[in-house]
Amino acid sequence: MDDATTSSDIRLREGSSIAQRLVMSGFAAAVALCFSPGLFTHDTLEIIISVVALLVGAAFVGAVMLAPAVVWIITPDEILIGQQRPFGRLRTRIVAKGDIRGLQVPGSKAAKARFQLAFTLASGERLTSPPISDVTHVRQTVARIVTQFDVPDVEAPVNPLDASNPEMHLGEPVEPFSARDIRIVALIVVALCAVPYAYKLWRGLSSGPVDIMLLPVGAIGAFVVYRFANLVTGAFWIIRQGDIRVERLWGDGKPRTDHIEGRDVKAITVERRGRSEDEHCTVVIRLQSGGRFRSPRIGSRLEAHAVGTEIVRRLGIAPENNKI
User: Fold this and answer.
1) Is the overall model pTM greater than 0.85, yes or no?
2) What 8-state DSSP symbol labels residue 178?
3) 282-312 confidence digits (pLDDT tens)
4) Angstrom distance (rounded) from CA 313 to CA 147
5) Taking a C-beta distance cutoff of 8 angstroms, is the pair 13, 142 a contact?
6) How many CB atoms within 10 Å of residue 56?
7) Of 41, 74, 116, 124, whose CB is crowded by the most CB atoms within 10 A?
8) Measured between alpha carbons, how far is 127 from 316 in angstroms, rounded to an integer?
9) Which CATH class is domain 234-321?
10) Domain boundaries, given as residue ranges, for the chain
11) Does an H or E element contain 184, and which?
12) Reading across the β-sheet that carries 168-170, which strands appear in turn?
């Protein structure tokens, strides 16, 4: 999915390419086939597991391959909607300017900086577009559409990543865990490691080396939780003109603040964390000093690319250091 910014039309796309579908389907099929030897055993449980795995794999492959690709082309006078499945014909629909009565820009519950266009037609039908990919210019895109279709009373979306904001925010403000929660988790770690030893002691059985070894492991684990729990609270980025303020916490809950300026940056890239390229991409900044800062999760690669491009612009990073 992407926005076209080189013409007066706005293009929104959603749906994986054929190559991406084939890769995902091939991976799912390979995993499912790993369970196929169980079909040739005489163990009823293994046969059931193999059948279920193959059915789930087949369902996943079917869902991936049959999911439609959708494109919206928004012109000053109409909306052209195209939908096509991998093995089907292209289905098109034209929504004239005069048929549009209202517009809303709902955000995603999963990603605060992901927005869609929800048009209400004269017939009462509601059409929802693919997500707006250029997250740094959502307000600009919505303003253009409002002007084109003369739609009244459209509430401007609150976008923490919009380039029109003096400060762009990535992530949530960090807060330390309460001392009570940390103590509870530390006690749970100790209890879990002591359960095998306590059980054998209660049953009058002799404890093995592993049971005894778990006791100091539990104590060490509790200490690590108590001392470093706040390190997992993440980071909060405030992107301003000329610098980035990165707010984090030390292990004891005290605030830690770092500032990144353009002259400090060696390279800036977009990376994927996890399996999904639609949800787990981040911007990574490598410093001249050798340090590295990884942003909070942004979303798809296109969304992370848009944020990275805006960071490059605000920090004035040299072209040779821009890997976006």
Assistant:
1) no
2) P
3) 999 999 999 999 999 888 888 888 899 999 9
4) 28
5) no
6) 14
7) 74
8) 40
9) mainly beta
10) 179-231, 234-321
11) helix 179-203
12) 168-170, 236-240, 243-249, 255-261
